[in-house]
Each structure stands twice: as structure tokens, then as C-alpha cells.
Design goal:
The structure is a single chain. The protein has helices at residues 16-21, 26-33, 43-49, 56-77, 88-95, 112-121, 132-137, 159-166; strands spanning 10-13, 148-151, 154-157. It is mainly α and 172 residues long. The chain has a three-stranded antiparallel β-sheet with strand order 1-3-2. β2 and β3 (154-157) form a beta hairpin.
Length: 172
């Protein structure tokens, strides 16, 4: 059976996702956040980002996905969007100094062009006194280690864990 077709890979779905996340580690939160499909909502991401134990790498990843794909550029056209404290990017900006650790690597690179634009943005309001430049420059020192990931709004076994459980090719 193919990995993606195996119903046994699903460990949490729908309203059970956040309850399941509550029993997991920051590494698993990172693995889930870096693979989350935003088409299935952002509540699991918001829950992860609201935890003080959330790693800065996870927060930076979510910010970079949302921020460098549209939010930062939308703000240049409509600065009032910065007032939306519920937006994930604003949430990360406001909580950045509350995250307890900073070891996990975000998986979104910042392009040279975006880096130059961000360097200009932090010179003036609304970003002048925010951690935007720190978030954009954040690197982390290691990848997350987890047996789980996300797929189509569900928490699933990672392919590596599935292979190990099945005893198939490349099993660990």
C-alpha cells in the first residue's frame, strides 16, 4: 500500500488536532507547522504559536510563509492591516520575545530581494520597533525530530515512521 493511501497514517483529524498537539513536543509542533496546509485553517498554527514552549524556528517559519508570500507586501499598500492583531504574522511579531527556545530551523528561505525590502521596512513604522529583522534573519541550529507531520489538515505518521512500522524499504 502507498503511504498517502494508507488510512492508518492518520493520528488526529478535525477538532482532535489541537487536543493531540497539546500532548506533543515542540519538535512535533514544528514538524506539523512546517507542513501545514493553510487551506485547512490556521487554528492549529495559532495554538502552536500561543505556546511559550513554541520554538522561535517554528514561529519564524510561519511568519516567513505568511509574511514573505503576501502580508508584508500587502501592508505596503494598506498599512491598516498591521492593526489586525489576529493575523498570524502580527501574532508572531507580538510574541517573539516570549518564545523560550530558538534551535529549530525554519524551512522557508528568505530571498535576497525580500531581505533587502525587509531591511528597508524596519527603518520606519510600523516595523521600526518590532523583531521583524530578527525573525527574517533567524536560522536555527537543527531540524525537528518527530514521527509525525501534517497532510491535508490531518496529523499523520511521518513517512519514515510509516516505513519503519511497515518494515518496508528504507525502514530504520
Amino acid at each position: 500500500m502507498l503511504y498517502a493511501m494508507d488510512p492508518g497514517i492518520v493520528v488526529a483529524d478535525g477538532p482532535l488536532v489541537i487536543d493531540w498537539l497539546a500532548d506533543q513536543t515542540p519538535d512535533t509542533w514544528h514538524a506539523v507547522a512546517t507542513t501545514w496546509n493553510y487551506g485547512y485553517g490556521s487554528e492549529p498554527l495559532r495554538w502552536i504559536l500561543s505556546q511559550d514552549a513554541c520554538d522561535k524556528g517554528t514561529a519564524a517559519h510561519v511568519f516567513l510563509v505568511e509574511g514573505t508570500s503576501h502580508w508584508l507586501w500587502d501592508l505596503r499598500v494598506n498599512p491598516s492591516l498591521f492593526g489586525d492583531e489576529t493575523h498570524l504574522c502580527r501574532f508572531v511579531l507580538d510574541r517573539w520575545d516570549e518564545y523560550e527556545t530558538g534551535v529549530l530551523k525554519p524551512t522557508v528561505p528568505v530571498s535576497d530581494s525580500a531581505d533587502r525590502k525587509i531591511a528597508k521596512m524596519v527603518q520606519e513604522p510600523p516595523f521600526k520597533d518590532t523583531p521583524l529583522s530578527e525573525i527574517a534573519a533567524y536560522q536555527g541550529s537543527r531540524q525537528a525530530i518527530s514521527d509525525f507531520t501534517s497532510m491535508d489538515g490531518k496529523i499523520v505518521l511521518s513517512m519514515e515512521r510509516w516505513r519503519k512500522d511497515k518494515g518496508g524499504p528504507h525502514a530504520g
